[in-house]
Design goal:
The complex is a heterodimer of chains A (368) and B (408). Chain A is α+β, with helices and mostly antiparallel strands. In chain A, strands 1, 2, 3, 4, 5, 6 and 7 form a seven-stranded mixed beta sheet that branches. In chain A, strands 8-9 form a two-stranded antiparallel ribbon. Chain A has three domains: 110 residues, Butyryl-Coa Dehydrogenase, subunit A, domain 1 (Orthogonal Bundle), CATH 1.10.540.10; 85 residues, Beta Barrel (Butyryl-CoA Dehydrogenase, subunit A, domain 2); 146 residues, Butyryl-CoA Dehydrogenase, subunit A, domain 3. The longest helix of chain A is centred in the middle third of the chain and has 36 residues. In chain A, strand 6 and strand 7 form a beta hairpin. In chain A, helix 1 runs parallel beside helix 4. By secondary structure, chain B is an alpha+beta fold. Chain B has three domains: 87 residues, no CATH class; 108 residues, Butyryl-CoA Dehydrogenase, subunit A, domain 2, CATH 2.40.110; 136 residues, Up-down Bundle (Butyryl-CoA Dehydrogenase, subunit A, domain 3), CATH 1.20.140.10. Chain B has a four-stranded mixed beta sheet. A four-stranded antiparallel beta sheet of chain B has the order 2-3-7-6, with no helix packed on it. In chain B, a hairpin with an 8-residue loop joins strand 6 and strand 7. The longest helix of chain B is centred in the C-terminal third of the chain and has 29 residues. Chains A and B meet through helix 8, strand 9, helix 9, helix 10 and helix 13 of A and helix 8 and helix 11 of B. The complex binds flavin-adenine dinucleotide (FAD).
């Protein structure tokens, strides 16, 4: 019996960490952030070589067939290094959408393409979680009209997976009637876009109205993965705060010898370590304990968003003026955490859904 | 993650659930209320049933009166979950059971284990903790109570304070200075003192809850046999820290907050404000959910620590944080309960209209966790110094010229 990572999972994280330390110094993140498209193709290719994109794809479809906990470990490491590529879209949500909602022939065709990295996908779920622009998708046979917002990694993708309540569908980014529009968030390590569709050709994943369960599961996967990304980012910030507290001298002492600084650091680690335990369990429950999966996934996303926000504030503050500068780059992590916090439902919405999961509130906030 | 919820665990869960539904419903023992006396006979009987079933003292060897089971994370989790879900009384928790027993198991002699563990876990032998003194609270190692060897005895003189349960305890694990020449951390011994010995004078101190569950303890020429020492002379600080580790684990036990969340959720489903259930008001509900998120994080963190312990994987900073996290959490959980009831939450002392569950007393009592066993500030010192390797506080001295830093 063990509650913790397996040796294999630890190795996976070490391996990835090593690759990112060597290949993704902050300069590279910064350079990507200054491009219009933040996606960094070189890093993406490097990560393809590490094989992480096929973790969740079953072996029958050319993947590694590993667990959500493996994927969680990867998401956390990518968050730690604020990696400018979308693992979430290409390696978690798109393959799972196809796996859960697609027909057998769709799985046979699309999953191997995702596993080999030959096709890239963007995905949008925001409008079925909390629709703020009254967007709609009207499906007419194999044509779709309407719009969708907050597509992850859509601009450089070959295909998009879009969601209407109960239905998932695929459109080609290059097809006639598809107009993409860039959305610039404060986080310059990831790309978001919106799409307008006018009688664009589409392919349904499964049948109309058959994807309720798939969307529920996708949202749990998203909650866990986004929470993991934030935990990684918060952990990286904490480590920078700890290092700085030893190195920065004022009043002839390292600032880390001032008790108020020590206590801030103690509070941060006290907040963070149980987050990791919660997240491990949430990932485990995703695969193994179906009736707890939603509750713990919602809580993981909400709680980690809150704790990461606190770490972000405290770390920034602890660096003094330097913390506020662009020079040091702490803000990249801060902003990543902030976008993660909002992405697919902020803490209040997650807690609301956790209440629904326990019969404490009516109406879940999902249009699914 | 190897939690293998196999069919044997379904059986185990069914067994625990059945126990809670049958035996659990029968028990009238009631949890010990703060300030209450020794456990009642009913509580002692219930404790006996729990040990026999293996739901408490689970891993304590049979020869010391325990259940003698092997450590099993999933079973511990199941026991905790089922007891919380059904609102079943858990076993007796006191300073003897949760702090002294594991200390003896770790560093006591065979004779001490055989003599003390069984009556303690049965709930029959009550222990007090004689650590704090009027001048030595957070700076515990500065304690002054003296122990001088005369023949076969230590002769003890001094004063302890905040000594919980001393008014009815049978025994006391006490820290005394036995080597006054040694540096402060090296001059202390950890003794087991019989509270019936002549020369011990107990004066109750009333707390903010209105109960008097802790005391001043005056000690004059009290004789304690030299064989009653745990560890060696001058090694008491190390032993004291073993006990503190268990004390912080007890206070930081995530089961408490899970029970609290359950209770507040029930309260919010019953309590109505102008006809609307508190649970149906998103402002209250969100506060509950926020606390539940932290409570769950602590719960799974507890499993991780248990797993580290069972698999001997060593413990870093993650083991030091539980008390700090759990005690503020409990404070906030009880505070929410009071807020949900508004004015009626402030009713006290069995007033008319007071709700059955005494949330205000729990709310006030939550300071026990925050201050006792080392305050939150001391926890943060421990976490940052021992856990994160940051420097200790410099020492300062006050004289007529003002403050002065002491360079060591
Ligand atoms: C309900 C209850 C039950 C108790 N039961 C027992 C018992 O059974 N046996 C026993 O021996 N003791 C018991 N205690 C005593 C408890 O351990 C002490 O109260 C505690 O360690 C604090 O010591 P103090 O009260 O002297 O406060 P002080 O040490 O005087 O602390 C005052 C304030 O100063 C802060 N402070 C002190 N030193 C530092 C520092 N280095 N850095 C930052 N801040 C600092 C503290 O955090 C606190 O806020 C009990 C206490 C309570 C509240």
């Amino acid at each position: 019996m063990r509650f913790g990572l397996s040796e294999e999972q630890t190795m996976l994280s070490d391996m990835l960490n090593k690759y990112l330390v060597a290949n993704l110094p902050l300069d590279v993140v910064r350079a990507s952030s200054e491009q219009t498209l933040h996606h960094n193709q070189e890093i993406w290719s490097g990560l393809l070589d590490q094989g992480i994109h096929s973790i969740l794809i079953p072996e029958d479809y050319g993947g590694a067939g590993l667990s959500m906990l493996h994927s969680e470990v990867v998401s956390e490491t990518l968050g730690k290094h604020i990696v400018p590529v979308s693992y979430l879209s290409n390696a978690v949500l798109s393959p799972l959408a196809i796996l859960y909602a697609g027909s057998e022939s769709q799985k046979e065709q699309l999953l191997p393409e995702l596993a080999s990295g030959s096709t890239s996908f963007g995905i949008a779920l925001t409008d079925v979680v909390a629709n703020r622009e009254n967007t709609k998708l009207e499906i007419n046979g194999n044509k779709v009209s309407g719009s969708a917002t907050f597509i992850m990694a859509g601009e450089n993708a070959d295909k998009l997976i879009l969601a209407a309540p109960g239905t998932l569908l695929i459109v080609d980014t290059k097809a006639a009637g598809v107009t993409m529009e860039r959305l610039n968030t404060v986080d310059k390590t990831r790309d978001f876009s919106a799409v307008t569709l006018k009688d664009a050709p589409c392919e349904l994943l499964g049948e109309i109205g058959s994807a309720d369960d798939a969307i529920e599961k996708l949202l749990n996967a998203a909650r866990i993965s986004i929470a993991a990304d934030s935990l990684g980012a918060a952990d990286a910030m904490f480590n920078q705060a700890l290092a700085y507290s030893r190195e920065r001298f004022q009043f002839d002492r390292p600032i880390g010898s001032f008790q108020s600084i020590k206590h801030i650091l103690a509070e941060m680690i006290t907040d963070l370590e149980p987050c990791r335990s919660l997240l491990w369990y949430a990932a485990y429950a995703y695969d193994e304990v179906e009736d707890e999966a939603k509750l713990v996934a919602c809580h993981a996303k909400a709680h980690i968003s809150e704790m990461a926000k606190h770490v972000g504030r405290a770390t920034t503050e602890l660096h003094g003026g330097m913390g506020f500068t662009d020079l040091l780059g702490l803000h990249f992590w801060f902003k990543r955490i902030e976008v993660n916090r909002q992405l697919l439902g902020g803490p209040e919405l997650q807690r609301h859904n956790a209440a629904v999961a326990q019969g404490w509130a009516p109406n879940a906030i999902t249009a699914a | 993650m190897e939690l293998n919820y196999g069919p044997e665990y379904d059986d185990f869960r069914a067994e625990v659930r059945h126990f809670c539904e049958t035996e659990g419903k029968k028990t009238k023992s009631g949890a010990l209320r703060m300030g209450e006396n020794r456990p009642s006979q009913a509580a002692i009987d219930w404790q006996g049933q729990l040990i026999e079933a293996g739901y408490t003292a689970r891993t304590i060897p049979k020869e010391y009166g325990g259940y003698g089971g092997t450590a099993d994370i999933v079973k511990s989790l199941i026991i905790q979950e089922e007891f919380v879900a059904s609102g079943t009384r858990s076993g007796i928790q006191n300073q003897g059971i949760s702090m002294l027993v594991p200390t003896l198991l770790e560093v006591g002699t065979e004779e001490q284990k055989l003599k003390y563990i069984k009556p303690t876990i049965n709930g029959e032998m009550i222990w007090a903790q004689g650590y704090s003194e009027p001048g030595s609270g957070s700076d515990l190692a500065s304690l002054k109570t003296k122990g001088v060897v005369e023949g076969d005895n230590f002769v003890i003189n001094g004063q302890k304070i905040w000594t919980s349960s001393a008014q009815y305890a049978d025994m006391c694990f006490i820290l005394v200075r036995t080597e006054p020449e040694a540096p402060k951390h090296h001059g202390i011994s950890y003794l087991l003192m019989d509270m019936k010995t002549t020369g011990i004078d107990i004066k109750p101190l009333v707390t903010m809850t209105g109960d008097a569950f802790f005391n001043e303890m005056f000690i004059s020429d009290v004789k304690v046999p030299v064989t009653s020492i745990v560890g060696q002379r001058g090694e008491g600080w190390r032993v004291a820290n073993v006990t503190l580790k268990y004390e912080r684990g007890m206070i930081g036990n995530p089961g408490m907050s899970a029970m609290g969340i359950r209770g507040v959720a029930d309260l919010m489903e019953e309590e109505t404000i102008s006809g609307i259930r508190a649970m149906d008001m998103p402002v209250y509900r969100d506060r509950l959910l926020k606390l539940q998120g932290r409570s769950l994080a602590n719960k799974y963190h507890g499993l991780r620590l248990l797993s580290n312990e069972i698999n001997k994987e060593g413990m870093g900073v993650e083991g030091l944080i539980v008390k700090l996290s759990a005690t503020y959490l409990s404070h906030e959980i009880y505070s929410l309960a009071v807020d949900v009831m508004g004015e009626f939450g402030t009713l006290y002392d069995g007033s008319a209209y007071q709700r059955q569950k005494d949330w205000m007393r729990q709310y006030l009592g939550s300071f026990m966790g925050i201050i006792g066993g080392g305050t939150s500030q001391i926890q943060k010192n421990v976490i940052s110094e021992r856990g994160l390797g940051l420097p200790r506080e410099p020492l300062v001295k006050l004289d007529q010229n003002g403050w002065e830093l002491i360079k060591k």
